[in-house]
Write a structure and sequence with these properties.
The complex is a heterodimer of chains A (486) and B (322). Chain A is α/β, with parallel strands linked by helices. Helix content of chain A is 35%, strand content 19%. In chain B, helix 2 runs antiparallel to helix 5 (142-156) and helix 4 (87-102) packs parallel to helix 7 (256-269). Classes of the chains: A alpha/beta (486), B alpha+beta (322).
Chain lengths: 486, 322
């Protein structure tokens, strides 16, 4: 840091006597400070410290683990918001070597992800056309696909036919035909196809399914399910003017204009609207936890709020599914709306002995289980560590107790709340990606293979159909199969 | 929830500033806002949304309250263990460590649990612990860092007339709403918000604020003792013009609001001599401290000013009428 050297640089003052914090004057002072002033110095110093310190003092956990696994060459196809989240999560998975990034938005998302990956030490090439990438990068063994839904089938099938394993974001496809062809391609090629319903690999969801529901049966018979994903109003996605994609490229890749490119989720033929983007994750869990696919769907929805010129899908959807579970009939409600974010997202499974409230979030509703007062004690499960000890509720108001009543007859007695003692400690998508790469190395089975993703797509895509036809629609068990199963 | 960071004692005022469109989002236990003036309101809203979306992403990396954040993973490291972090987490930690050194430990994200036992490997983007038990809390720097990144997004979109802040405790003014004038800001007594202590006109300037309301306390990480005699502190510094370019070239970026955010916390605990010395060796840096000579924040409070580019002694601030 330099000493005082700005003595002659007195800032002008306004007549009102206000201070002017004028950038130029101050910068003249700052620019004379070696190494970019206050912060640039930090970076330089860090580098010195780092060089001095023996870098190999303690090997990072990841690097150490990486020595035990075979390196897998990876490409990212689709470098938008979701592709970036997956890329970030993959940096924590040992033994991955990124080779290529493919995205049509070269000046923005592609460049950003390529730069990030280079910063993480990967030598990657950028591509606009996935076919060119597949031609020129024979070393790629696995492709992670996060393109818009209407591209999934073509991309996933082409990659598998080129001999690559595929991790494909949900929704598997915007059409059942596309999803079916993906399943068939996976079977034909013998390649792995994992669908991005990442809760299937989340340790908390696995714990709830395997231990709390299946083994301990803590909820008893589940009769109703409730869930939601509510989002506050947000502006349409835009793009910095200077980075607009040329119209010819947009047209070539199926987009009417830049606005549609950025907001494809709202357009028919491209995406499926919030029920597919958001609902798909949670409706997938309904079927998983209930152990069966739905028999019927009733739904109401509409474009109640957003501008129909730029929004084709429903901004508000309410759905009721009927299930015939191994334990008996059940009904499940789900809603998604994009005009008010009240209570965010969660799923609630309600049985005759307890209630499970769960969400993927580590911040809101990460996992609570409530024992019905009439259910058998859960002490043994607490001792086994399956659930936490009851959370002591805060003392009730004096006034409330002063009424003299033992219990208010209008309300059921309050159940005990226990925490689900399993948290996700890695970034959100990491375990599902890890499961995929473990499978690529022959060390695991996929948690959400193509067939499971297909079942979920059947249940979810039917909602838009039910809204359109305004009737209760039935599923046949064979609807959930693509045919030709072994 | 109650109005967060009500005690920051930093406000925006004036008619022209109110003409700016405001966009807000809640994250990191505060409300982030973007004020922007742009002929195309829809475009500006989309830019603001893109900037605000960053706060959520950063919270996911930086919050110690989220079990799977980078910081939570660092806080769980045993001796000899390491974890990979995002570019942003690493950059924020680098700045935090530097602020620790610059303030002689008065700003300490480890709150005395041992920042020196954390090693940062910038090439591998790995954080390594040499001792167990370190507990990092980026509460005093993360908001400012988010504000810096948000401003980069706005500039990328071509929005230059804008002000970004997190709970008004981390403020970054870009170009002002009227040519040649900055954004009109006030510094006021957090214990008596109507009492305006100073008015500033800020452009391409970052200002951090830290203050106490009655009953709060702040602990000096160097002694573990609560600090007495300070009611609020503000720190201002110019935003370097080279930030965007530096980032594009892969050179270190200058996250000035992260710096003022950290220094404002430090100024609540540093001695007058220390603050004077810090400002003297950091041209462009400016600080204000509201001293509290009474009991429970009720007594006399005097504003002290440090640094800045003015070499002719304390500047005649326009003081409030309260």
């Amino acid at each position: 840091m330099a000493g005082e050297d700005g003595k002659d640089k007195v800032a002008p003052r306004t007549t009102e006597g206000q201070r002017k914090l004028d950038r130029r004057d101050v910068l003249m002072g700052l620019s004379t400070v070696p190494a970019l002033g206050l912060f640039g110095y930090a970076w330089r110093k860090q580098n010195q410290v780092k060089q001095a310190a023996a870098r190999a003092a303690v090997a990072p956990r990841e690097a150490a683990a990486a020595g035990d696994v075979r390196e897998v060459n990876v490409a990212l196809l689709g470098a938008g918001a979701q592709g970036q989240v997956l890329t970030e999560a993959m940096q924590r998975i040992p033994g991955l070597r990124f080779r290529a990034v493919c995205d049509i938005w070269t000046e923005y998302n592609q460049r950003r992800v390529v730069n990030t990956l280079k910063r993480y030490g990967h030598e990657v090439n950028g591509y606009v056309d996935y076919r060119e990438m597949l031609d020129k990068e024979p070393a790629i063994e696995a492709v992670v696909i996060a393109t818009p839904d209407f591209w999934h089938a073509e991309h996933a099938i082409a990659c598998m036919k080129a001999g690559k394993h595929v991790y494909c974001e949900k929704e598997m496809s915007n059409t059942l035909e596309g999803a079916r062809n993906m399943v068939l391609a996976a079977r034909e090629t013998g390649k792995l196809l994992q669908i991005g319903h990442q809760r299937r690999s989340n340790p908390r969801y696995i714990h709830c399914h395997d231990k709390l529901l299946k083994e301990a049966n803590l909820l008893g018979r589940i009769v109703t399910v409730n869930g939601q994903w509510n989002r506050a109003v947000a502006a349409d996605l835009g793009a910095p003017d200077r980075y607009a994609i040329p119209q010819a490229t947009l047209t070539q890749f199926g987009f009417k204009d830049m606005h549609q490119f950025r907001n494809w989720r709202w357009y028919k033929g491209l995406g499926g609207g919030p029920i597919v983007d958001l609902g798909s994750h949670q409706i997938d869990i309904y079927s998983w936890f209930l152990g069966s696919n739905p028999t019927h769907v009733t739904a109401s929805g509409g474009l109640l709020y957003h501008d129909p010129k730029t929004h084709e899908w429903y901004d508000t959807v309410m759905v009721i599914y009927d299930y015939m579970t191994p334990a008996g009939p059940a009904k499940a409600y789900y809603q998604t709306q994009t005009t008010n974010g009240s209570q965010g997202y969660f799923e609630t499974f309600m049985g005759d002995q307890g209630t499970l409230l769960i969400s993927e979030s580590e911040l809101n509703n990460p996992g609570s289980i409530y024992r019905d007062p009439n259910a058998p004690a859960w002490d043994a499960w607490i001792q086994k560590g399956y659930i936490g000890a009851p959370v002591i509720p805060e003392a009730k108001d004096e006034e409330e107790g002063a009424s003299g009543a033992i219990a208010d007859v209008r309300e059921s007695a309050a159940p005990d709340r226990h925490k689900v003692p399993v948290a996700l400690t890695d970034p959100y998508h990491q375990p599902h990606l890890q499961n995929f790469f473990d499978a690529v190395r022959g060390k695991a089975r996929l948690n959400c293979p193509a067939e499971v993703g297909y079942e979920s797509a059947v249940a979810v895509l039917k909602v838009n159909e039910a809204i359109e036809s305004n009737t209760r629609l039935a599923f046949r068990p064979e609807d959930f199969k693509v045919g030709g199963e072994a | 929830m109650s109005q967060p960071d009500e005690e920051s004692g930093l406000r925006i005022e004036g008619r022209r500033a109110r003409d700016a469109r405001r966009h807000s989002h809640e994250a990191m236990h505060t409300v982030f806002e973007v004020y922007a003036l742009h002929p195309d309101a829809r475009y500006a809203a989309q830019a603001a949304e893109a900037a605000l979306a960053l706060t959520q992403r950063l919270e996911r990396d930086l919050s110690r309250f989220i079990a799977n954040s980078d910081i939570s993973r660092i806080n769980r490291l045993e001796a000899g263990e390491a974890t990979r972090v995002s570019l942003e987490t690493l950059e924020c930690l680098v700045i935090a460590r530097h602020m620790f050194e610059v303030t002689d430990g008065a700003f300490d994200i480890s709150i005395g649990t041992g920042l020196s036992s954390i090693e940062l490997d910038e090439d591998a983007l790995v954080v390594r612990a040499t001792q167990p038990g370190v507990r990092l809390d980026l509460g005093g720097i993360g908001k400012g860092y988010a504000v810096d990144l948000m401003a980069d997004v706005l500039e990328e979109w071509g929005l230059r007339v804008a002000l970004v802040h997190g709970g008004f405790s981390s403020v970054l003014a870009l170009d002002g709403p009227v040519d040649g004038e900055g954004w009109p800001l006030t510094l006021s007594d957090p214990a008596a918000p109507a009492r305006v202590l100073a008015r500033l006109s800020a452009c391409q300037t970052s200002i951090g604020a830290s203050g106490l309301v009655k009953g709060d306390h702040i602990v000096d990480p160097r002694t573990g003792e609560p600090v007495r005699g300070r009611r609020a502190a503000w720190v201002a510094a110019p935003r370097p013009a080279t930030r965007g370019q530096a980032a594009a070239d892969g050179a270190p970026r200058l996250a000035v609001t992260a710096v003022t955010d950290a220094l404002t916390t430090a100024c609540m605990v540093m001695s007058v001599d220390e603050i004077t010395a810090l400002c003297a060796r950091s041209p462009g840096l400016e600080a204000w401290v509201l001293e509290d000579h009474g009991q429970d924040g009720a007594g006399e409070a005097g504003l002290r000013h440090f640094g800045g580019m003015h070499s002719d002694g304390p500047v005649a601030l326009q003081t409030g009428d309260a």
